Amino acid sequence: MFRSRIARERIERLLTLAREEFKTNPERSRSYVELARKIGMRYNVRLTKKQKRSFCKKCNQLLMPDETSQVQRDSKKKLIIIKCLNCGNIYRYPYKVKSCH
Ligand SMILES: [Zn+2]
Hints:
Blueprint lengths: L1 H20 L4 H17 L6 H4 L16 E6 L4 E6 L5 E5 L7
Antiparallel strand pairs: 1-2, 2-3
Helix pairs in contact: 1-2
Bound molecules: zinc ion.
The site of zinc ion has 8 residues, from loops.
């Protein structure tokens, strides 16, 4: 759909702006992320997995390894543990995709 294509482009642009501003203006950076998520919800556009994992769902802070996030690997459980250094929220993602076969 045409509108969802526009929405997707706007989300991508907002996340790019958020990346550009997160050092100089973290507050504005977070508001760009917030806006990108609002557009996604409003137009029912799903963010890509990569986009979703690029920010904190709780405080909208971009998660940059060693800058705004702490990344750890749990090799036993095959998990990546990402901690948001802004609000302390923790995310766990499997880093090995299981095969369906
Ligand atoms: Zn956070």
